[in-house]
Amino acid sequence: MSANTSPAIELRGASKTFRTPSGGLHTAVRDLDLTVGRGEFVAVVGPTGCGKSTTLTLVSGLEEPTQGEVSVAGEPVRGVGDKVGFVFQQDATFPWRTVLSNVMAGPRFRGVPKAEAKRRARAWLDRVGLAAFEDRYPHQLSGGQRKRVALAATFVNDPEILLMDEPFSALDVQTRALMSDELLELWEGTGASVVFVTHDLEEAIALADRVVVMTAGPATVKQDFRIDLPRPRKVESVRLEPRFIEIYREIWESLGEEVRITRERGAAHVA
Amino acid sequence: MSPEAITTPVVDTAKTPPDRAYSRARAARRRKVLITAARVLVLVAVLGLWELLSRSGTIDPFNFSMPSKIWDQIVTWVTHGTALGSLGEQIWYTLYEALLGWVAGVLAGVVLGIALGRIAFLADILGPYIKVLNSIPRIVLAPIFVIWFGLGPASKVASAVVLVFFPVFFNAFQGAREVDRNLVANARVLGASDRRVTLQVVIPSATSWIFTSLHVSFGFALIGAIVGEYIGATKGIGLLVAQSQGTFNAAGVYAAMVILAVVALVAEGLLTFAERRIFRWKPSGSEN
């Protein structure tokens, strides 16, 4: 029963230090405490290169923390688990597989029989509106369509936890708004907990229940804002609401400072 | 494509489709014909000059032979067979050795290349040895193989294998190293085991690297087989070369070379065909 009451994701005092190619040490994340409740949509914003993505790789189990503890559903993370889905910033569709085969990959990797995997994959392709494209190869699709394939390929595994690393940053602005709406629709049916990393504050507020502001690297949580905008939301219209603008201003005050620090450091490096 | 073809607005071609489109197509056709004609001309000029110089005695016809004699030699071989038996048999023998060596070398190269690319521990241990082996001029191993394996096909296959292995190995190794990290991470999160990552992510993405080496290495396999035959064999085109040389038949040496070139070109064509089939998933054009 305790597994059901424990938070979806918990990071306690997590730090991650990398060895740089030149032999030095680089601390990407320091002393990070973050809790994500079940079914909660948390957006993480912070200056570029502050270590937001590293946080996600720690939760996913792709990387181990140098210090501290990371748990998913109350259990410490040991390697890549089967509860997690990950949507990457860059294209991570397999170029040599067709669209259908790409979406089938997850279930097939997890030992689902072929016919069943195909059925599930088709259902998700239908939901992201790519049913007619199942025989295409990724290079024959637009950027937005490829992202949809990536979403379908992630959702088809029924992840309890959805990690998204600036998933829409490579898309043009219109496609991006569309994809955000689609993501909300897809997510609302699943009850998954989401950690959505972005550097776009508007996107963060429009999507999330909570926005977590990270400090300039090494990243740690600076401030945590609850977004009380009602759901269901439409990304394009919610942006225009007065409450949205109020929240934006409040969070930007916190985030802007970190962005300035990062920029000054960059300038100092150049000088 | 000519510059005006790019800058011409689409509207224009829609308005006056017959003339523009027609003249452009005609220009393209004319260019093609011109290029083909020039190519043939180059060939005719070179062969004609050779024939002429040889016949007039400017170059020694005994040493340099001449195209007409080479042609006669090929015709004789085709119609009456060679001193070693029918020409087809010689070609088949060489091809058989080269193919066998090529397949073995490619398999070994790919397996070891991917394994070392994936398992850093193995790469650290074997890396220096492979470098040392690669720096040996492997063609000199051919006589040793003849001593070890005798005059039969085995010694030729062995020399083809050592020639083929290294380029394929290095490309497969590089291909396995250069796999997009995102794809690997994605596969792992989707639930792929290490074995699955190797089979379904690393190998497919290394195939384009491997294929580039396949083209080069088939040429190497032929060289390995020919050199092996040249040094000592009972059949094969390499032996044909050696024998023609032994009987001071320069035309025979050239004729064997021509036959080899044709064989190599046909093999190359088949490989390109296979490549197209396999890489249907790749964006066409610009990539290659």
UniProtKB/TrEMBL annotation, chain A:
It comes from Streptomyces thermocoprophilus. The keyword Metal-binding does not apply. Transmembrane segments: none annotated. GO terms for molecular function: ATP binding. This is ABC transporter ATP-binding protein. Keywords: ATP-binding, Nucleotide-binding, Transport. InterPro entries: AAA+_ATPase (IPR003593), ABC_transporter-like_ATP-bd (IPR003439), ABC_transporter-like_CS (IPR017871), ABC_transporter_ATP-bind (IPR050166), P-loop_NTPase (IPR027417). The keyword Coiled coil does not apply. Gene3D superfamilies: P-loop containing nucleotide triphosphate hydrolases. Residues 9-241 form the ABC transporter domain.
